[in-house]
Amino acid sequence: MDDCVEHLNLVNMDRFESVTVLKPANIYYDGKVTSRTVIFPSGEKKTLGIMMPGEYEFGTDQKEIMEILSGKLTIQLPGDDKWIEIDGVYQFEVQANSKFKLKIQTVTDYCCSYV
């Protein structure tokens, strides 16, 4: 039950309070994808970022939950040949030690949780 509550809080959370934000940016693909790291008192880590139009592939070291907050894009999850079309709010999970692909069509706002 606690996992369900935590999942709902993740989806509905529109702000973070009492956190530490690391000033250095995480910059990928010549600045077309950027984020900032947010660390919670519990030690939990998230990144908040923006992706500009383009095609990208990312690898994971640990399981990630990606929340798309806005934007138009398609994603290809590990082990899947099909592309998922997203226009607006969406959430997906990527297992540890895997890769996923994104085709960003409009500026996309995201939050990534590391679990």
Q: Summary?
A:
The chain is mainly beta. It has one helix at residues 2-12; strands at residues 20-21, 26-28, 33-39, 45-51, 54-59, 64-70, 72-76, 84-87, 90-94, 99-104, 108-114. Strands 1, 2, 3, 4, 6, 9 and 11 form a 7-stranded antiparallel beta sheet that branches. Strands 5-10-7-8 form a 4-stranded antiparallel beta sheet, with no helix packed on it.
Kindly describe this structure.
- The protein is mostly beta strands and 115 residues long.
- It has 1 helix and 11 strands.
- It has one helix at residues 2-12; strands spanning 20-21, 26-28, 33-39, 45-51, 54-59, 64-70, 72-76, 84-87, 90-94, 99-104, 108-114.
- The strands form 2 sheets. Strands 1, 2, 3, 4, 6, 9 and 11 form a 7-stranded antiparallel β-sheet that branches. The chain has a 4-stranded antiparallel β-sheet with strand order 5-10-7-8, with no helix packed on it.
- The radius of gyration is 14 Å and the shape is globular.
- Mean pLDDT is 90; it is low at 1-11.
Mean pLDDT: 90
Low-confidence stretches: 1-11
Residues in helices, as a percent range = under 10%
Shape: globular
Question: Topology of this structure?
Answer:
Layout: H1 2-12, E1 20-21, E2 26-28, E3 33-39, E4 45-51, E5 54-59, E6 64-70, E7 72-76, E8 84-87, E9 90-94, E10 99-104, E11 108-114
Antiparallel strand pairs: 1-3, 2-3, 3-4, 4-11, 5-10, 6-9, 6-11, 7-8, 7-10
Keywords for this structure?
globular; mainly beta; single chain; seven-stranded antiparallel sheet; disordered N terminus; 115 residues; four-stranded antiparallel sheet; 1 helix; 11 strands
